[in-house]
Each structure stands twice: as structure tokens, then as C-alpha cells.
Amino acid sequence: MNPFDGSVSPRHEEAEDAAAEGRCPWARFSSWLECVCVVTFDLELGQAIEVRRLKTSICYLSFPDSYSGSLGDTQFSFRMRQSVGRRGSRFRDDIYNRDAPVTLQREVSHFCGYVYFRQVKDVSVKRGYFQKSLVLLSRLPYTHMFHMLLQIIAPEYFEKLEPCLEAVCNEIDQWPSPEPGLTLNLPVMGVVLQVRIPSKTDKPGGSPLRQTAKENLLPAPTVLPTIHELDLFKCFQSMLIHLQMLWELVLLGEPLVIMAPSPTISSETVLALISSICPLKFCSDFRPYFTIHDSEFREYTTRTQAPPNVVLGVTNPFFIKTFQTWPHIIRLGETKMAGDLPKQIKVKKLAKLKTLDTKPGIYTAYKTFLHKDKILIKRLLKGIQRKRPSEVQSAILRRHLLELTQSFIIPLERYMASLMPLQRSVTPWKTPPQIRPFSQDEFMATLDHSGPQLTSVLKGDWMGLYRKFFRSPNFDGWYRHRHREMVQKLECLHLEVICDADLLGWTKDKSEVEIVDLVLKLREKLIKAQRQQLQVKDGVMDKLDAFIKSIISSLPDDLQTVLSTH
């Protein structure tokens, strides 16, 4: 494989132009994409070419892992661990992640890959086929948007090659950076994509983007109602009767393998599963498309320890034998119809997963804590019979999963809020009070009067589900995130209380040592607040900065000199 026979890099004169404009070369491009890659299969070189680890991984992830005789174009996604030592712009990431929903934050240690693979007959090639992939590598999980972008640029690239890609990259470098809450118009190859970047302040399950009537753009923009959501119904249509089980397995971060007939089905199913617990962030590792050449293959397939808490999507039949010890395996085939309804796969015993021709099914011994929602299943199946559009079916499904997750998480949020110190206990002259520790027993005692039964009709062992959730990576990730937010909230309250205090009056009867100590502590708090991008009330930071300067100016010259060097 020749990984970068058409890779794109900035020209020297373009870098100089960007510098003259006062911005870093390719800074806007980098806010959307890490790079654009072209991967070609070379029969003679095959997998033997020696390239760096990152390039090797991209090569293998950009092609179907097992033989496929199907011709034409295929799109799929992957996710890969980044090389040690690589790092994006910390400042840019922090600003974006501060305002983005947790499920759409920039990846810190992984890349998201979006692939457009073409396979057509070509007698001029030894293998008899032209096989090439165009890959977009990004830290942003904008699955729908980047696949739409590939549908625009990939067919044109396969006709015109490198000059086309260079022009596209230059256009992307003119785009505004993705900023949560904004609607952006993004021109590329004569098309204008209109997208809205979701914000953490958005109401979950809010209305999708519709074209704005005020703008008079030429050409008229192509409006993307979402930048990240998938066709959930298409992904789950053969597993509708098992939705409750799938949701619980993902919520609990259970080890799960999806064995699919193609990278497209594999990647879409994994991403749909991960999104099923939204707005809760899935905090374990997940790989929409995983191959035997992946650098984590040994780590994730060892039999000397329990399977890791990851969700893997695979296509190579070899994995059936490799993953026999895993507790949950979903074997998918092409969707088949039973009359006018999609045939539903069955739950089967793991012992039956033995041969390469294993039939589709969910191979697990897992028993759900909650009963399935039969009304939802009937509604979706009736929708199929009535030819209800897939996007409407997906909206029904997404709404159900959102409400289910919210019913589960709201009691946790309510209890977590009760651990926050009272605002009146925050004073300017003392360190902010500590947040009370999370007590599982104390939380469980709140469920009788404020549990999920208040918002969900589902019956079952909710308490058992919570107990198991407490042992999962998703609880650990949720708790750490919420605790960090609460600590920052306390820091903001403390800064605001300090700002409202009579600091000048306090200094009148204090020694120079005490005043210098106060100045150093206030300056440290300001620097920390700026570094963490704390969202304090308007004017607080400026007022404290002005106070520090006025105090310093009132001190003897030698102390002013010392403080100015700190």
C-alpha cells in the first residue's frame, strides 16, 4: 500500500501569505481536519511497505479487511489512537470543548477517520481492479458532515486527482473555525454546506437546522440538518426487539463486538450504539472499524485477562474464533425481510458461536435489568408497514433513547447538585469549601421519592442497574466531568465574592507581608481562571486585575520591583 501518493501539504508561499495576514499557516484548515490522505492498493508492495506507525494504521483502516467482490463506492468510518507525542492546539481545543456538548468534543488522544473507497474493474492494473480510498482525518466526531463532504469531493478527485485536492484544502482553509452555537456557510467545489455547530446549552433533542430565509447566498446552500447524527433506524432495524438490551450494554460499558458483513455496516452500527446513551458520553474506547492489523490488536484480543471495556466493529471472519471468550457478540448479516418487516435477529447462547458460517444473532448470556418497551417496538414496526420515512422512524427512536437516558441520569444529576456547598458558605477570606463525597448508599436512598420512575414508564430493577453502572467507566467519566464542573463553579463564585469584598479596606491595617501574600494569591487565582477559561461574570476579572495593580502601586518601590518579576 502506498499511503500518501496524493497527500496534501501547504506550500511555502501559502504559508508566507498566511503569516502576512497575521494567522498561522493552515490554522483554519487544522481547526476542521488533521489531514487529507489518499491510499492506493499496490499488488506488488501489498502490506510490506515500511512506513511510520500512524501511516500504516491509516492504510489498513482505509480498505475493507476481508475480500469483497462488490464494485462501486463505499463509505465508512474508523477511530484510531494517535501516536505518542502528537498534540493539537491545546488552547483551541479547550475553547471549543468548553462550549461543545461532551459527546461532540474534540478527541484528545484519538483521530476520527472518514473513508470514501472506490473499487472498479481496470484491465490496466495487475489485480484487475482500481482500488483507492480518500480519507479525511479529524479530531471532530462530525460523522454526517464529513461523509457529505466526501460525497462532494471524492468523485471529482478520482477524475482529476491532486490539483482538485489542493484546491479543496485551500477552500477549507478559508472556512471559519467551528464554534458551538453558530450556523456556518462552508463553500467547497461550487457547493455551500450550511451547518450548525451544536452547543452544550442546546436543549437535548432540539429541532434540526433548517435553511435561513434571510440569507441570499448564491449558490443556494445545501442545508445539513445535523453534522453528526446517523440514520438510527437503518442501523437498528434488525435488532428493534432488543433495543433495551443494547442500550444497557452500552450504558454499562460492557465489552462488545459487532461482526458485520461490511465496514459500512460495522462502523455505522458501532457509532449508533455509542450515540444511544446521548447526552451521556461513552467513556470507554470504541472502534467503528477494527482490523487484525490494528496496533491494539494484541492488547484487545489477549486471552490472559478479561476482555477490555471496548466496543469493536469488525468484518474479518477470523475474529469469530478470536473473540469466542468475549461476553457479548452481535453477528449481523445483510438485512432480510420477513414479509414487509425486517427479520429480527435472535439472542443465542455464546456456545453456538463456533464456525465461520455462524448465523446472525446476539450471542450473550446477559439478562436486562429493565423490561423492553413493547409500545415503542409496535410503533416502529407499524411505521415500517405504513412506509413511514426512515428519518421519522429515526427521530422516534432517538427521542425514546434520549428520554430513557435522561430518566436514568436526572436522579444522579439531582443528587450530585446536593453535594455542592451552599453559596453563602463561600467567603472572600477563606479557601472555597469542599464538595461533599459521592455516597452510593445515600444516592440509592433518594430513589424511592426522586428516582427514574418519575419520568419513565419502564419497569424493572433500576437499583440493580445503578449498582452495576457505578462499576462502569461511564460512571467514572461522568462523575469526574461533573465534579470538575462543580469545582470550577466554586472557583467562579469565590472570584465573584472576592470582587465584591472591600479588599482596600482589608489592607489598611495589614502588614506588607500580608498584603504581598494577598496579591500573589489573587494573581495566582486570576492566572488559573484564565488558563481554565472559567466563565465568571462580566467585569470580575478586570476589576480584580485593576485592584492588584492599585495595591502594588501603593507598596514601596523595592516590593513593586519584586512583584513585577513574579
From TrEMBL:
GO terms for cellular component: recycling endosome. One of its GO terms (molecular function) is guanyl-nucleotide exchange factor activity. Residues 34-480 form the UDENN domain. Belongs to the DENND6 family. This is UDENN domain-containing protein. It comes from Sphaeramia orbicularis. The lineage of its organism: Eukaryota, Metazoa, Chordata, Craniata, Vertebrata.
